[in-house]
Write a structure and sequence with these properties.
By secondary structure, the chain is α+β, with helices and mostly antiparallel strands. Helix content is about 25%, strand content about 45%. The protein has a domain of about 150 residues: Clam (outer membrane lipoprotein receptor (LolB), chain A).
Length: about 260
């Protein structure tokens, strides 16, 4: 009888232990299920300086050095730009650079209008002004990420967890709401699961796919901005084929 009671007690303890293990596993599962792309991006925003601090920003400026490469590794173009964005009373900004012929280019966005000058001469070509407008918005898109993602009409979908350069990362896809353009750009953010730094991006365009490594960050301001990036073209298998562009950002200045 004593042996039977002992066996019953052992079985009860085993069942109780199994119950608590099950609860623990269920809890872990629930926690993983509640982690969303939106939550990952919000954590990343905090890592890079915080949403409230970004909202308080009145002006951001920096210098950007860009080198474009041909597939054989030779240099296509090399430019140094000054970029400045004002956030007070709506968005305005300017981009200034010199081309290889030492001509000064300036793009100005103010009150919803784009203007461009070359050596202080106003550009009137509709096509060139359209390219200038696209250049301004492309520059602003890069400068404002990831901070303004929560303000955009976009679904932030947590796709999977991947290994990237020996680190576990979340892959978050951006799917813009109310977008009927199936040929539009599709962005993916590779975010460290521990630090929530944006370590890389993938962008799928109509005619090619690029992978951008965010190699270093600038922390000279209250924000953590990109400092050095490299962009690679990918083949259909998602493999890097050649270095397409290299970017350096420096001399960050912020006003609150």
């Amino acid at each position: 009888m004593k042996m039977d009671i002992k066996n019953i007690m052992i079985k009860a303890e085993v069942k109780r232990f199994g119950f608590f293990i099950g609860v623990a596993l269920l809890s872990i599962s629930c926690n993983n299920n509640t982690l969303s792309g939106n939550k990952v991006v919000r954590n990343s925003i905090e890592t890079h300086g915080g949403y409230e601090q970004w909202e308080a920003l009145k002006q951001l400026s920096f210098n950007k050095e860009t080198t474009l490469f041909y597939e054989d590794g030779s240099v296509e173009t090399h430019t140094n730009q000054y970029q400045m964005f004002n956030f007070k009373n709506g968005l305005s900004g300017t981009i200034v650079w010199q081309d290889s012929e030492q001509k000064k280019h300036q793009i100005l966005f103010d009150d919803g209008n784009i203007t461009k000058t070359v050596n202080d001469t106003m550009v009137t070509s509709i096509e060139e002004l359209k390219r200038a407008e696209n250049s301004f918005w492309a520059a602003y898109y890069v400068a404002s990420k990831p901070f303004d993602l929560v303000d955009q009409p976009v679904n932030l979908d947590l796709i999977r967890t991947i290994d990237y350069n020996g680190k576990k990362c979340y892959e978050v896809a951006l799917n813009y709401k109310n977008s009927s353009d199936e040929n539009g750009d599709h962005w993916f953010y590779i975010i460290d699961t521990e630090t929530y730094e944006v370590l890389a991006n993938k962008v799928v365009l109509k005619d090619h796919t690029s992978w951008i490594d965010n190699l270093t960050f600038d922390e000279s301001t209250p924000f953590k901005f990109n400092s050095h990036r490299k962009s690679y073209r990918l083949n259909d298998e998602g493999e890097k084929t050649y270095l397409r562009a290299e970017y350096y950002y420096k001399d960050f200045k912020v006003l609150f």
